[in-house]
Amino acid sequence: MSLLVVGSVAFDTLETPYGVAERIVGGSGAYISLTASQFIKPVHLVSVVGRDFPQSFLDELKSRGVGLDGLEIRKDEDSFFWHGRYHKDLNTRDTLETRLNVLATFNPVVPEVAKTADYLILGNLTPDVQRGVIEQLTRKPKLIVLDTMNFWMDVALESLHRTLLMVDVLTINDEEARQLSGVYSLRKAARKILQMGPTYLIIKKGEHGALLFNKEEVFFAPALPLEEVFDPTGAGDTFAGGVIGYIAKTGDTSFENLKRAIIYGSAMASFCVERFGTERLLNLTERDIQMRLDEFQSLTKLDMVRI
Amino acid sequence: MSLLVVGSVAFDTLETPYGVAERIVGGSGAYISLTASQFIKPVHLVSVVGRDFPQSFLDELKSRGVGLDGLEIRKDEDSFFWHGRYHKDLNTRDTLETRLNVLATFNPVVPEVAKTADYLILGNLTPDVQRGVIEQLTRKPKLIVLDTMNFWMDVALESLHRTLLMVDVLTINDEEARQLSGVYSLRKAARKILQMGPTYLIIKKGEHGALLFNKEEVFFAPALPLEEVFDPTGAGDTFAGGVIGYIAKTGDTSFENLKRAIIYGSAMASFCVERFGTERLLNLTERDIQMRLDEFQSLTKLDMVRI
A300 to chain B: which residues are within 8 Å by CB? Predict the structure, then answer.
């Protein structure tokens, strides 16, 4: 099984109540490929960076089985840069600076080796670019996962709708589900969104867990109440990376297996937020993951007694 | 097994995006006793109403096994009245009018028959009044559940702390847990609050479910994603009524059984919000409850496959 990941690889400067991290590696493509490579090899990463990007991080990805044939390195430009400050509750944040740099003209080219990938995950990018990736493939993947955000609903809704027709799984947060559907009830929102194309909808609710819908069923995966959330950056992408990684490894795209996949995704995201950026993901053992999965299961485990 | 319920019985005028309900019956004592009586008889209700309160609702309670020996009816005053308007998201609301009326001088007197009750639940009232109820009992209940709110943390924190020393279960929402403990992480907040007296802490997160803590363990009960939330008034009290009703019926105060109890509480609360006020609770069959419990269980049911 092979996985194609398309997303940004970038620098983030992060301010949280716990400290400041300057120009650390981030971006959806970085988080997704790093997480998915815990489960499946090869991962093909399609992205773009500038002259300022550290070779050491690329070497790290390579050592984990992430193929970089589709990574464009522009010698005359800088990498995408985002500077954000989280509020005290860590659920909301202000963007202090965004420099698109290489991302402004990013036009992903899927390398030959990845055009027949078994699985595809599209990190948050313009819907036009996401659709352009799908159109380069020479074989239909077993599953296409798409992440997007409210910004594209505001400025590129029609393009987003065309892209939604081509994907199997959409991952968005609760506010985005409400915006995309125009209804407040998440159950009704899911029904409307599933008529737009995807077979599955995953609604991410951050510290409140995640919901998985298909046309008939609903499943809820809790988030683990953590001692401390240190930095939420990348949690959604890490979640998505865990989801697609588990699916690709097991080769099963049924609703039952997607339930398991979002538990794995939730477990991976719970590590991500424990440290700045990708730090915790880079220092994760098999045993860490298994123990965290146990915690997730015991959180809702119950022998029901009816009266 | 017998249950003593202390709380308000009142009139609410409610404005939601779905309509207006004028002067319908509400109050924590009404919701809790109505819900608990689905599980256990007798329920003894200690409360106060005025000359304007409908005998028909009292007859309804009596027909469900709710003893009214402790219900004071003041012929020269009016019942407690609250008028609120919910915002579009139904999670926030404005108080438009509060008339304390009989509640201003409410001094609960526990009738003889209820002084040896097996279980006690104290709805949201001033901590002084709540403590005064406990001090009237002639036998220690198997379990005392206390509900409170941020208002008492603002104006009567010392009294609240004294009351917390006397109870077994505290039910509050996530913001209140943060306020009471002074820490943001709910896991840390729980640890601090459990040092204040209670053996168990239940943190209610509304549409995001509920957490149950003791000193060693944590359990999460999801909320069912509903087609439509019509009126959230009374959901927290209905949840508490279901929790104490299930515990009283089963006679088991272990952590394992409290897990089951909060699933029952969540199921009962999910009915409450489907109609205005107590309407849905008054028209609920055994079969409705069983089917809802099935929905709750399937929501997180999972056969995990490790990889």
Answer: 219-222, 300
